[in-house]
Design goal:
Length: 305
């Protein structure tokens, strides 16, 4: 068991540059914590007025979870998927052994855009399989009885929360849920005590387990909790992520999640060689080249929390 924790993981600003031309805030992976459950990556891009153009790029060994807050995003991938995404909807792409995709904002002019981009690392049983894509326009919600003020509402994006399950495909015990608190409310969020959890404050104000959260902070709670108390003065939008601790050590580099240096090198070489492993994305005549590998052997990043 990990035990109860109350550790703030402050996001860092990462410039993505190029034709995307925007900065993101990255809360995960953290130098001391590579995964929370099977969640291995959390970016927030926005809020900003921007023209987003993410050209085709590859993935292996993970699922991408796109959760828009403001604006519309067009997803295209090497499976032939072509789907627009807006607030309250979920795009879930499973990379398996290899997939490529692009993401564009809708229209030719800058638009207001804000979203969470998350990755879930796949276990051995799924990471060598075929890729897949799902678009879920209706996700289940659950009311959380308040101890003070109005009840809160949770949208179950991925996995299971408060006895309600998302229809999206998962490969490990996991939870991803958006929590909305009314002004002046206090609620208890139920938790599976064997799972580790973290809460990110997206908008508003919140106190979690007696800790005041700043916007975009991710509060790591560890495991061994059956609930956590959350309150808000002005109202809050939070994102809960967690799951069964992921036991395998992973090697993450660029857009790849593997288990060894050699796996990453092979995936990079396949992408640069335009291998059929990653397919092609219709409607594009350019794609993002892989960056150079570092001069050192890629090693798994261990948990220090």
């Amino acid at each position: 068991m990990i035990g109860q924790r109350r550790i703030v993981l402050e996001p860092r600003e990462v410039p993505l540059g190029g034709v995307r031309g925007m900065n993101v805030l990255r809360a995960l992976p953290h130098r001391n914590l590579p995964t929370i459950g099977a969640w291995c990556f959390l970016d927030r891009f926005g809020p900003a007025d921007t023209k987003m153009r993410v050209e085709p790029h590859p993935h292996i060994g993970l699922q991408t979870v796109t959760w828009p807050l403001v604006g519309e995003i067009r997803h295209r991938d090497s499976l032939g998927s072509d789907a627009d995404l807006r607030r309250g909807q979920l795009n879930l792409m499973t990379a398996g052994n290899g997939i490529s995709h692009s993401e564009y904002s809708i229209g030719e002019s800058p638009i207001p855009l804000d979203a969470l981009q998350l990755w879930v690392v796949l276990p051995d049983s799924a990471r060598h399989g075929a890729g897949g894509f799902e678009r879920h326009t209706e996700l289940p919600t659950v009311a959380l009885t308040a101890d003070a003020g109005a009840d809160a509402t949770a949208t179950v994006v991925l996995g299971e929360f408060a006895g309600v399950s998302s229809p999206a495909t998962v490969h490990t015990p996991i939870v991803g849920a958006e929590i909305v608190l009314a002004p002046g409310s206090r609620v208890r969020l139920p938790m599976a005590s064997a799972w580790e959890h973290a809460l990110m404050l997206v908008e508003g104000d919140a106190v979690v387990s007696e800790h005041p959260l700043e916007r975009n902070e991710l509060l790591y709670l560890g495991d061994s909790r059956d609930h956590v108390e959350v309150s808000s003065t002005e109202g809050a939008l939070l994102f809960l992520l967690g799951g069964e601790p992921f036991e395998d050590e992973i090697v993450m580099w660029w857009n790849f999640a593997g288990r060894s240096h050699e796996e990453i090198v092979a995936a990079r070489e396949d992408w640069e060689a335009a291998s059929a492993r990653f397919g092609t994305v219709d409607g594009h005549d350019v794609r993002i080249p892989a960056p150079p590998l570092p001069d050192v052997r890629l090693m798994p990043r261990g948990r220090k929390i």
